[in-house]
Design goal:
single chain, 554 residues, Growth Hormone, Chain: A, 0% strand
Length: 554
C-alpha cells in the first residue's frame, strides 16, 4: 500500500464530529477491548497488507501456492501407505511410528514460528524456504540406506511441508475477507484433498511397480516447480518497522518453544513403543518439556516485544476452545488415517488397494471444507455449524469402532471414511474462521500458526497413542494365545515387526494372529472415538464473532 493510500485510510478511520460516541461491534477487538484506529503503530499493524485483489488475481496468487499444498498432502498419504513396506525393508515395524512422527515433530516445531517469521521476513521468503527443505527431505528419503537417514529425511521434509501448508493459509487470510474466507479455504482444501486422495494410491502403485524409494524421488522436481511459481506469483509486502528484521525475531521464545515441542513428542513417541515408559529417555524428556514450556510462557508474556505466540490470546475463550478442538480432532483423525491402511493390509489387501480406500477421507475433507465455506459465506455464522460438523466426525468414529472386523463388507468403510473426512475438513474451516475473527488483524498469522501447532502436535500424539495401544494390545493378545508354544518369543517378535509375517506363519497360527490384530485395531478405534467426543465437547465453548465482508474488517 502506498504512503498516500495509508494517509487516506488513516484519515478516513479517525473520528469526526459525526462519529458515534461508542464503537459499534465491528470495532471491538477479539478480547472485547476497543481496537483504536489511528493510534500509532497499533493502527498501522491493523491495516491490511494489500488491497483486496480481483478474483482473477486471487486465483493466480493462491493457485501458485496450492501446488505446494498439493505436494505436502500427497506426501502425507504416501507415507501412510508406504509405512509398512518401508518398515519391512528395514526389518523394524516400530519404524512405522517414527516415519510419521519425525515428519510431524518437525511440523510441530516450525509451524508455530512461521506466522511471526513470515510477518517479519515475508510470505514469499517463507514459502521458498519451505519448498527447498521439502525437496531436500524427500531426496534424502529416496536415497536412504539406514533407518536414521530415513528419519532425518522425514524431519527435513517436515520442516518444509509444514511451511507449505501453514503459509498458504496466511496468504489466503491476507488477501481474502473473512466472510469469503471459508469458501476460498474450501478451494484450497480441494487441492489438499486431491493430494491426499492421490497420495495413497500413487504411493501404493509406485511401491508395487518400482519400489517405495521412487515415491519420494519423483516429488523433488515437482517441488522445484512449486518454488519457481511462488517466486514469480506471490507478492505480499512486509510490514516494516523502525528496527532491523533480525532484532524483531523472538529467538528466546522460538528456541524454548521448539525444545518444548520436540522433547514432548520425543518422549511420547518413545514411551511404550521404542523404549519402556520407565526408560531414562522418557523420564528426562517429558519433565524437561514441561520446564521449557514454563520458560516459554514467561518469555512470551514478559520479555518478547514481538512474541512468537502472544500467550494472552489463548485466554480468549474462542481461541482456546478452537485450538483444543483442532487438537482433539487431529489426534483422532490421524489415528484413523495411519491405522486405516494397516487394517486393510491385515485383511490381505495390497498397498495399492489399501491406499485406494483412503480416497473417501480426502474427498470428504474437500467437500466438508467447501460446504462449510459456502454456508458461512451465506449466513456469516459458524458456531452451530461447528457443533454439527463435529457431530458428524464423532459419528464416523463410532461407526468404525462399532463395526470394523475381519469380515466387514467392502462398502461400509468407504462410507465411514467419507463421513470422517467431511467432519474433519469442515471442523478445520469453522475453527479457523472462529480463531481469526476473534483476534485483531495484526494477530491473524500468529493465531493461525498457533492453531497449526495444536494440529501438528495433535497429529503426532494421535499416531503415538495409536501406536502404543496397537503394539501393547497386540503383544498381550499374541502372548495369551501363543505364549506356551515352542519358539513363541521369536515368532511374536516377527509378527509385531511386519504384517507380511501373516503369510509365513506356523500351522494353526493364522486365525489367532488375525484375531489379535483385529483386537489391537479395535483398541485404536475406541481410543479414537473417546478423543473425538472430547473435541465435540470443547468446540461448544467457542463464541460467535463477526465475519466481515472486507479486509479492513469494517
Amino acid at each position: 500500500m502506498s504512503t498516500t493510500e495509508d494517509e487516506e485510510h488513516q484519515a478516513s478511520s479517525e473520528p469526526t464530529e459525526q462519529s458515534p460516541l461508542l464503537p459499534d461491534r465491528d470495532q471491538l477487538a477479539g478480547d472485547g477491548t476497543i481496537s483504536r484506529q489511528g493510534e500509532g503503530n497499533d493502527d498501522d499493524d491493523n491495516i491490511p497488507l494489500v488491497e483486496e485483489p480481483s478474483t482473477g488475481q486471487a486465483v493466480i496468487t493462491l493457485g501458485s501456492i496450492w501446488v505446494g499444498v498439493f505436494l505436502a498432502a500427497l506426501d502425507s498419504t504416501i507415507i501412510a501407505t508406504l509405512s509398512a513396506p518401508i518398515s519391512t525393508t528395514f526389518n523394524s515395524f516400530t519404524l512405522l511410528s517414527w516415519l510419521a512422527s519425525a515428519y510431524l515433530i518437525a511440523n510441530a516445531a516450525l509451524q508455530p514460528l512461521s506466522g511471526r517469521l513470515t510477518d517479519i521476513f515475508g510470505r514469499r521468503t517463507g514459502l521458498v524456504f519451505s519448498n527447498i527443505f521439502f525437496a531436500a527431505g524427500n531426496l534424502i528419503c529416496g536415497l536412504a540406506k539406514d533407518e536414521w537417514v530415513m528419519i532425518l529425511g522425514r524431519v527435513v521434509a517436515g520442516m518444509g511441508g509444514g511451511g507449505l501448508t501453514a503459509i498458504s493459509t496466511f496468504v489466503t487470510t491476507d488477501i481474502i475477507p473473512l466472510r469469503n474466507r471459508g469458501l476460498w479455504q474450501g478451494f484450497g482444501n480441494i487441492c489438499f484433498g486431491l493430494g491426499m486422495g492421490l497420495g495413497g494410491v500413487f504411493g501404493g502403485w509406485i511401491n508395487d511397480v518400482w519400489g517405495w524409494r521412487n515415491a519420494f524421488l519423483i516429488q523433488v522436481p515437482l517441488t522445484v516447480l512449486s518454488c519457481v511459481l511462488v517466486i514469480l506469483m506471490v507478492k505480499i509486502p512486509v510490514r516494516e518497522k523502525n528496527i532491523s528484521r533480525i532484532r524483531r525475531v523472538d529467538f528466546l521464545g522460538a528456541v524454548t518453544l521448539v525444545l518444548t515441542l520436540v522433547l514432548l513428542l520425543l518422549g511420547l513417541n518413545s514411551g511404550g513403543n521404542i523404549v519402556p515408559w520407565t526408560h531414562p529417555l522418557v523420564l528426562v524428556s517429558l519433565p524437561l518439556s514441561g520446564a521449557f514450556l514454563l520458560v516459554f510462557i514467561f518469555v512470551e508474556a514478559r520479555i518478547a516485544s514481538e512474541p512468537v505466540i502472544p500467550v494472552r490470546l489463548l485466554l480468549d475463550r474462542t481461541v482456546l476452545c478452537g485450538c483444543l478442538t483442532n487438537w482433539f480432532g487431529t489426534i483422532s483423525f490421524f489415528a484413523l488415517l495411519y491405522y486405516g491402511p494397516i487394517y486393510f493390509q491385515v485383511r490381505g489387501l495390497s498397498s495399492t488397494q489399501a491406499g485406494a480406500r483412503l480416497i473417501p477421507l480426502s474427498i470428504g475433507a474437500a467437500l466438508g471444507s467447501l460446504g462449510v465455506g459456502i454456508i458461512t459465506r451465506i449466513t456469516g455464522r459458524y458456531y452451530i455449524l461447528t457443533a454439527v460438523i463435529e457431530g458428524i466426525l464423532v459419528l464416523a468414529f463410532a461407526l468404525v469402532a462399532g463395526t470394523f472386523n475381519i469380515n466387514t463388507p467392502a462398502i461400509p468403510p468407504l462410507v465411514y471414511f467419507l463421513l470422517a473426512g467431511t467432519g474433519y475438513g469442515g471442523m478445520l474451516t469453522t475453527t479457523l474462521l472462529g480463531l481469526i475473527s476473534a483476534v485483531d488483524h495484526k494477530h491473524q498469522a500468529v493465531i493461525t500458526s498457533a492453531s497449526y501447532a495444536f494440529r501438528s502436535t495433535g497429529g503426532t500424539i494421535g499416531i503415538t497413542i495409536a501406536s502404543a495401544v496397537f503394539q501393547n494390545v497386540l503383544k498381550d493378545q499374541l502372548w495369551q494365545k501363543f505364549g506356551s508354544k515352542k519358539g513363541a518369543a521369536n515368532e511374536i517378535s516377527r509378527i509385531r515387526d511386519s504384517i507380511d509375517e501373516i503369510n509365513h506363519l506356523p500351522p494353526g497360527w493364522k486365525d489367532g494372529v488375525l484375531e489379535s490384530y483385529m483386537g489391537a485395531l479395535r483398541g485404536v478405534w475406541l481410543v479414537t472415538l473417546g478423543i473425538g467426543i472430547l473435541g465435540l465437547l470443547v468446540s461448544l465453548g467457542m463464541r460467535e464473532h463477526v465475519l466481515h465482508r472486507n479486509l479492513a474488517r469494517k
